[in-house]
Amino acid sequence: MTGEEIKVEVMAKSALEGMSRTEIVDYVIEKAKDGAVIVFEGQLNPDLLTEIIQRTMEEVDVEEFTGIDIYVVPPKAKAQRSRRSLVDKLLGRRSEEGVTVISPADVLKDLKKGEDFITLKLG
Q1: pTM of the predicted structure, to 2 decimals
Q2: CATH number of the domain at 8-122, please?
């Protein structure tokens, strides 16, 4: 994917409410195959993440699709929430859900993960 443009999509939790599990899994895999990084408001259900990983492993092709990376930042305790997160600002509201980031495996160059942040170097 070097030299290609990287697309980042930020999705509100409400966008997933009208989708079935299969639709969510299909959506994530399609976007990852297209090279997009998806930032979901909230933590995706562990069973759903497991299904995404299983389907991804079935579709891995070392030349075309190398898989995905998943990162989760849990919500802060209420006492620690004083500033709006980037997701809050992008969605125009305050979220207390944390975030889930799913990226194509070949897009990630470096990762730093703290208690309440993820820094991804993509390229």
Answers
A1: 0.75
A2: 3.30.950
d(CA 77, CA 59): 38
Q: Are 53 and 70 in contact (CB under 8 A)?
A: yes
> Cα–Cα distance between 54 and 49 in angstroms, integer?
9
Instruction: Return d(Cα 112, Cα 123) in angstroms, integer.
Output: 15
Kindly indicate the confidence band of residue 90, based on its pLDDT and cuts at 50, 70 and 90. low
3-state secondary structure 43-107: CCCHHHHHHHHHHHHHHCECCCECCEEEEEECCCCHHHCCCCCHHHHHHCCCCCCCEEEEEECCC
Residue 36 DSSP symbol:
-
